[in-house]
Each structure stands twice: as structure tokens, then as C-alpha cells.
Amino acid sequence: xxxxxxxxxxxxxxxxxxxxxxxxxxxxxxxxxxxxxxxxxxxxxxxxxxxxxxxxxxxxxxxxxxxxxxxxxxxxxxxxxxxxxxxxxxxxxxxxxxxxxxxxxxxxxxxxxxxxxxxxxxxxxxxxxxxxxxxxxxxxxxxxxxxxxxxxxxxxxxxxxxxxxxxxxxxxxxxxxxxxxxxxxxxxxxxxxxxxxxxx
Length: 200
What we know:
This protein is of the alpha/beta class and 200 residues long. It is 25% helix and 44% strand. The protein contains three helices and eight strands. Strands 1-8-7-4-2-3 form a six-stranded mixed beta sheet. Strand 7 and strand 8 (160-171) form a beta hairpin. The radius of gyration is 28 Å and the shape is rod-shaped. The protein starts with a helix and ends in an 11-residue tail after the last helix. The model is unreliable at 1-19 (pLDDT under 50).
């Protein structure tokens, strides 16, 4: 029985840890095959927050991207690459409308009660604290930080973006946002077709 409980807890923990607050997207305009090498070009502009505008974020994005590209058979070639790789990381402050429930909390009070003991009645007071009552909802504006990490694969010969993958999500904790970057990059590349980029 204990083993089953431990396995259930471990499974639930794995599921929760794999959950992400990001949504992932990708677009491409040509078959992604026949490429053997890549090189980096400077990251895109519009990094609007210190969360991503630092060497730690850059290193994590570059290392995670290199790992994904090399796992697909590409090698780094700064002299004559087939693909150019660029990333853009942005954090913007946005205003979201949130529909929140409204409750009425009736005041707690002492209420008189009539009790009986051995055939005699007596008066006593009991403390009454009623539960909150739902009375409706209200809309309010909440300022949130929206993060976006975008990766572009560019054909060096044509200078055209052949594939773009990106993640968008709400950032509530800067430290967590930095720590999640390798996983975010990995999930972006999951949007790449399975056999894409491999030379034929």
C-alpha cells in the first residue's frame, strides 16, 4: 500500500513539474531539410526587462538552442554555415481584465440561546460566525508581466526566416523565469517537425 502511495505522489509531482505557464507556437515557410551547420547572429532588439537582458539569460538560451540543433545533426560553423540562428527575448507589462468573485462577510456576534438542564431552563449566549455569502463578481484591471522567447532559423543564402518558434507566458517570478529558459527552449523545438533540419 505504501509503495502505491509513493508511486502516486511521484507521478503527481512529475506531472506538476512538467506543467508550464507558457504557450508554444511555430511557423515555417519551406521544408526544413538539407541543412548541416549553423552560426549565431546577434539577438533581436526590444529586450524590455532586466529579467532577460543579462548574460545568464543569454547563455542559457544559447546553450539550450545549441543542444537542440546538435541533437538534430547540425554542427557549429562560424565561417560558412547553412543556417543563421537568432533569438529575441522580451518582457512587457500588460493590463489584463480579471473577473473576481465578491463575497459578503456578515459580522460575527453572540446570540442568546435557551438551554435546559435537569428540567430547568436557562439563558446562555453562543458565538456565531456565519460563512461568507457569494453576492456576484466584479471586473478589475491587473498589471502583469508577459514574457516571450522567440527563435528564428534563417537560410544564409536567401537571408529569409525559414522557421520561427516562440513561447509566450506570464512571468510572476524573475528567478523562476531564468531557471525555466532551457525547458522553454526545449519545448519550442518540440514544435519543429520530427526529422527537420537533418541533412539528406
